[in-house]
Amino acid sequence: MMTKIAGWTELDDRAVAYARALAMDAVQKVGNGHPGTAMALAPVAYNLFQRHLVHDPSDPQWLGRDRFILSCGHSSMTLYTQLFFSGYGLEMEDIQSFRTWGSLTPGHPEFGHTAGVEMTTGPLGAGVATSVGFAMAARYERGLLDPDAAPGTSLFDHSIWVICSDGDLQEGVSGEASSLAGTQALGNLNVIYDDNRISIEGDTHVSFTEDVAARYRAYGWHVIEVPALADGNVDLESLDKAMIAAKAELTKPSLIRMHSTIAWPAPKLRGTAKSHGSALGDEEIAATKKELGLNPDEKFAMPADVFAHVRSVKDRGAAVRKEWDGKFAEWQSAHPDRAALLKRLVARELPAGWEASLPVFESGKDVATRTASGHVINAIAKALPEFWGGSADLADSNMTTIEGGNSFLPATSAMKNADPYGRIIHFGIREHAMGSILNGISLHGLSRSFGGTFAVFSDYMRPSVRLAAIMDIPTTFVWTHDSIGVGEDGPTHQPIEHFAALRAIPNFAVIRPADANEVAEAWKSVIKRNKPAGFLLSRQNLRTVDRTSHGAVAGVDKGAYILKEASSAAQVTIIATGSEVGIALDAQIALEASGVATRVVSAPCLEWFNEQPASYRESILPTSSLRVSIEAGIALGWREYVGDSGIIISLDHWGASAAAGKLFTEFGLTSDRVVADVKKALS
Predict the structure, then answer these.
(1) Are 143 and 420 spatial neighbours (Cβ–Cβ below 8 Å)?
(2) How many CB atoms lie within 10 A of CB 495?
(3) Quick check: is 431 catalytic?
(4) Phi/psi at 358 (nearest 5 deg)?
(5) Of the residues 141, 284, 431, 521, which is catalytic?
(6) Angle, CA of 234, 238 and 241, to the nearest 5°
(7) Distance CA 54, CA 164 (A)
């Protein structure tokens, strides 16, 4: 029976049937994967890509496009099939090479690898949470480019569509972000929740019995319920109406709770956990194809008439794009300054002379690096309108407030300084969601953002940090209160193992500046590099180094540099980061006074240092000298820099509740300790 949707044809029904078959065939060929959800979601994704999603497959980066995120990334065939149908560059051979080496169809969708994939998904909940960042970025960018347009009328208005699973909504990060999405009244966000009551362990009711719809209504979402048909199939007609209603709702994010049957219409395995993560087997696949009216003996079939029909979405996309381009030309003519800004943002260029706005801090004044970062953030904000961000409820501690920037809040908010295009994001006490949302802002493409919390809470954010590094996107994390220097709050708030844990993430720069001017230089490098990075900043005041007698701060961009040279050929090289650089400088004075030629190296970013040629690294840390590292964290990682005979002064136990100075003294992080250890090693 043909699906009863206006304009829907028998060819559409056949296309859905072949999409279900491709999911089965692809998983069966490779021997592993997740066929069941892709089979059930085939009509959902097809209807979205063919009838609702605004997109131009010939240009996956088109500014006017809607964004689609498959949060349940394990069901990657749901997305790959539609990218194949729509003409994004995938062809049948790509479907046939699913989950194999070098293919464009890896096990989970990968951003930057396959055209049409808006983000890397797989860790459940991440897609839902990141989509909130997409939706927030869309509003902020509209404010930069077309703030006066009526709701729903701007060239830059578009929808964020998400398909998610039970597993996504069980994860805490999705709840954190969804709560904020309700507060932000993100009417451009539409989430289709596939409620199939199946996870790896079977029926989700063994662990998940809450009323999800009620929860989302409590978050402030527009919720639509779509029951399954009597035979278990998706009620596509009702779902279509729900999707239209969701897109029409501009004042709230929408959740469509859609009931489905996993692996429908497989005769034996539909509705079972076995179909979730395993191939169905040749016998069940053949029987299912018969149910679908397909030839059970054909594999990876795609009749020419069906293929021509599904590919016609390219023509419809091109027509929409042509209309948009015409309106865009008019907008450019009417708003030349905004058009120039857009051109710069698309090119990821920086305005000429922007660096001149960065502060230079006077020597002789002690400044906490978190405070310095706050000054730098505000200087960057004056030069870069695309720069915005905030904190997980710690703005006054993290120093992440853009002065005069107003709060990013919907027009309906009663809060003071609420502004739908404000530059200050209040993430709430939602560190993990903050990380995901920042990633969404980065992925959306035009703006630059940052988010702050205490360094010890980077643990809550690690999955988001890891995804930023995997996707290689310029998300910037600001972590303050970076050591036992936190002081009286005690060991729960004193990061000990965190430096090493963050440095263990590949393709991620961990920056721990020694003074205020290193902070400014590091921020400059981060903005220019356009890569994932995180700052570790002090609560306590640190000396501002006199650059007339010490190394030039430009050395920060190389990750490590000579801050203070030895009086002669260095017998000892001390390498330190952050607050411990001051200890190294004091130790140098004492060692030089006793006749030990000592060099001090500041190493704000070991990852940037590792990028340098071996010749540079040797010139900074000569193997001919005794190398000593000082850092108020665990020793892990420092042996690489000091060598087997070097000295590591570290902190390999928990902190305590006391004043910072007392803790540094009691735990042996002092210049006297350094001097004693060096003299002992040299004797």
Answers:
(1) yes
(2) 25
(3) yes
(4) -70, 140
(5) 431
(6) 135
(7) 20
